[in-house]
Amino acid sequence: MNTQEIIAFAVVLGAVIYTTRQFIRQFTHGDGAGSKCGKCELNKAVIKSSKK
Amino acid sequence: MSTQTQSKKPSAKKHIDIALIGNPNAGKTTVFNALTGLRHRVGNYPGVTVEHISGMLLDSGKQKIEMHDLPGLYSLVPKSLDDKISSDIITGRSKELEDVRLVVVVADATNLSRSLFLVTQVVELGKPALLALNMMDSAEKRGLTIDVDILAKKLGIPVIPICACKNKGIKKLKAQILTQVTQENGKFEPSNFCFDAETKNILQPIQSWLQSNTSLNNFSCYAEALRVLSNDLTLENWRTNLENNQFAELNKTVTEVRQQLETKDTKWHRMESELRYRCIDNIYSETVTEVNIKKDHFSEKLDRVLTHRVAGPIIFVLIFGAIFQSIFAWAEVPMNLIESFIGWLGIQIAGIMPDGVIEDLIVDGGIAGVGAILIFLPQILFLFFFLSILEDTGYLSRAAFIMDRIMKGVGLSGRSVIPLLSSFACAIPGIMATRTIRNPRDRLVTIMIAPLMSCSARLPVFALMIGAFIPNIMVGFLTLPGLLLLSLYLLGILAAVVAAYALNRFGSKKQRPSTFVLELPPYRMPSIRWTFLQMWERAKIFVTDAGKIILAISIILWFMASYPKPATEMSSSQAIKQSYAGQLGHVIEPVIKPLGFDWKMGIGLIASFAAREVMVSTLATIYNVEDADENSHTLREAMRNETDPDTGKKVYTPLVALSLMVFFVLACQCMSTVAVVKRETNSWRWPIIMIIYMTSMAYVGSLLVYQGGLLLGLS
């Protein structure tokens, strides 16, 4: 494996990590108490009403 | 509409919270934007703000003043989720915003009488308040003169006349806010002007109970007692804030007072509205002079045509037909320019860089993938240009009115219309806007059908297929590409109607659709500044937010299409077949073959779950890697030239393009939409049902189009 390939693979790995992180964040966004959406009162109200 | 919420961070600075409230469509977000310098989405129909959004009004060395723009409401009695958030914050029930120092109420000066209902309720809470009287210019044009000084005296709070959309009076409003919040005790002199001695006497038992058992101040107990007495929803709202035995006590006290009133034949449920409107009539007659009230005859005449039972829907279709035609015609020149630039950039970089993997990654992965999407930016911007013009002129509200009839026909509330219209731009704000729907069942059905409205992310796929395979011929007064694009949008609406009907019919017990009251704003000239601002914001979101994920996936796709490298010398088309992408594509090919799709399209379908536009960048990356000899300079050319090596026939035909577009109209290929459905329904059940039903519908729809077309001898 030459230097060019090592750099290219590092970039590809970065892209994979970024995409995976985005994917996970999309689905966990708002679930944590400290997250942006977790703090929003309306989201709490939505979640509470959905549980009924 | 924005989905952004800035959270409060711990700071040594003194933090002051201010709430901005008002009736829906009173211009709160315009005032908020003018005061904070932010650019949150505004609209001339209710339901644009469904989240609590905030921005800094002042951030000096000593203190931070944060303003919170709350969803619109007509009264402090909450009827939907978005009403509840505003009501809880203003009445002090919210745990997040416990100490609101000042309540700024935005009122529509052209409709002061209605706005005063909420204003008087807020004043009676005993909290420092301020009235921003918006749209003063429109009120004057209509012949209404409002004596601001007398109004301030009557209400006991400062009143600032403004015209937020023209930035008039904003400086004075900001100065008044800063004065009021920096005065420790303020000069506020609350008055519960709606209560006479007799009313106070009736309310006394409930007032005493609230005073002894809750944290409400002495002053606001009367107002709360009146709401609890007149409205079961307010009484129910206390259930969550009190212990069971306490709530039973309050309930008992309220029931006793109600029974006493019934013996005197007094309608307790009308008490608040009767008292308040009597009081409002007095204030109005002393502060407002009506001279030669001008009725908006132009709007009335136009409405008779545009909202007509038969003519309305026809005009709706014609307007959107003309828009889609223009999107193709006007965007052609900037699209060609971008396409040429991307091609030129690729050649330049390939010329500068030494041959090797890095060059391939940049040119075939990055530039080919991202560039293929950027080409469609002009079309997306034109779509938003037209949508913004339609909204600003007031036509979108009429479109909502027209669609209301269709929605009622399938058992949905008219309140579903605005979220569905929002979904034409993007399903995410549309799904969030369903919070204004009071009936939970209607809300759920609307969430489930919102992604069927064709969002702007589908446009690059439609434009690519139509531009490459549909001939530009005239059909009546429309071109075939324009007509086809209009048909795809109508197909989305039709599918949503059918899905809503099915979900209502087979889901659970049928309920009567609730009433939908929509205020139709007067027609007006659109603001060009605002239209271009919206287009600029949209372009930024497209390039920065969507651009990042498109670039990342293009890079991954480049790797998958380039590796493993063949051990022996072979053509690039053979090499790509043996790549990871080729292997994966051939696994799924048998499933999608009946729809007319080859393995490359299959890879695109999988990748587009991250974002629909990724379909285009995926195809661009795959074709660029494969097309090592550079026979085709654009993606459209590469697709037109693509032949099946086994049969020698063209892979892409107009029928395949149509089948793919139908699949894209009906499929749920958006990770963000699934995530937001999961959040809004607080369960995995509904997003999974959504993926299954939409994918099945897309597969069957596409199959019918392709196989039906083959049977009819089309290609």
Which features would summarize this protein structure in a list?
heterodimer; B: 715 residues; alpha/beta; Rossmann fold; Helix Hairpins; 6-stranded mixed sheet; two-stranded antiparallel sheet; 30 helices
Structure description:
The complex is a heterodimer of chains A (52) and B (715). Chain A has 52 residues and is mainly alpha-helical. Chain A has helices at 3-28, 36-39, 41-51. The radius of gyration of chain A is 19 Å and the shape is rod-shaped. The termini of chain A are far apart. In chain B, α20 packs across α27 (635-641) and α29 packs across α30 (685-711). In chain B, strands 2-3-1-4-5-7 form a 6-stranded mixed β-sheet, sandwiched between helices. Chain B has a two-stranded antiparallel ribbon with strand order 6-8. Chain B has a two-stranded antiparallel sheet with strand order 9-10. Chain B has 30 helices and 10 strands. Chain B is elongated and about 95 Å long. The two termini of chain B are 43 Å apart. Chain B has helices at residues 28-36, 81-91, 112-123, 136-141, 148-155, 170-182, 197-213, 218-230, 232-239, 244-263, 271-287, 297-306, 311-352, 357-374, 377-393, 395-409, 417-422, 427-432, 440-449, 459-469, 480-507, 528-562, 572-578, 580-592, 599-607, 614-626, 635-641, 654-666, 671-681, 685-711, and strands at 14-22, 53-59, 63-69, 100-108, 129-134, 144-146, 159-161, 288-290, 474-475, 478-479. By secondary structure, chain B is an alpha/beta fold.
